Amino acid sequence: MANIEIENVSKRYGTTQAVDGVSLKVSSGTFTVVLGPSGSGKTTLLRCVAGFEKPDSGSVKIDGEAVTDLPPRERDLAMVFQTSALFPLMTIHDNIGFPLKVRNVSKTEIDKRVNEVADLLVIKHLLPKKPAQLSGGEQQRAALGRAIVRQPNALLMDEPLTSLDAPLRAQLRTELKKIRRETQMTAIYVTHDQAEAMGLADSIGIMNAGKLSQYGAPLEVYSRPANSFVAGFVGNPPTNIMEAEITEVNMLKLDNATIPLDVATAGLVRQKAGGSSVLVGIRPEDIGVLAKRISEANLDVEIESFETLGSSTVVSSFVAGRVFRIVLPPNAQVTPGRHVQLDLPVKKMHFFDKKSGELLV
Question: Taking the model in full, what pTM does it have?
């Protein structure tokens, strides 16, 4: 298994800066997920690692050796795409074994390794079939088998589960974790799906507008976002981000609520923000709902709509012109137009710079 180092990689297409000075290290045997919205540059970054695109600047190293100028075939990496891209006239056995055949591996060894991979992916019964006879999930399993059969330096995956339905995606995530555990293969996985990222990753890199916003362990990214973009992107439903003011008497003015802050927090936030205006982030699941308003620190909101999700109910409202969400128990009685009083615990808040969005406290 290989260590992969991406150092200050940039890639431009005409006037579009697809990747802008991205650096990250993927340690041997770890599973790294690159997460971001469409157009954030995550697939372009993966293609630079694979060798399908050449960076305008920066370098890619595998086990300390620069491979930026090497063609894909000389990097010993395997890639799985959004579609399976199987050869339609070949059996699944021959599709999986094809990378070994072109390397002149003996038929006996090919059969042995194809069967081992098929056992791992639970597709041995599909080996005699053609791709058209398989479901979408079965085709992606076969494509994954073709990628790992030759035991490459690392496995690169570009949203391989996107075209599958939700239950099948969840099933294949479980299987990917099993494969990762048993092979200890280095992997870089690109997705816009937070559930995939949080469920699969040892480390998550969050991309936005070509830049790497944050890189760290899943719970670190979730619990301490580096900026307001990460806070608003990671989590379902996402973090509520609101404009607020911190007064000279250490009070947080947030729409119709006035929340007391401790002197140290208020002073530090004002100092780092260079003023009193800040952005405040709080996750929907950290908000308490009160039977009645107890003090001016409670936020009064009007319920606009709600979604019953089975395990919870997500209530949507507006605070200072921004969508504001609350997570309630599944049996919560909610009615559009009704006002509710909210408790916003300061210990659960994040404070961000109003201009840059960077985390202050």
Answer: 0.89
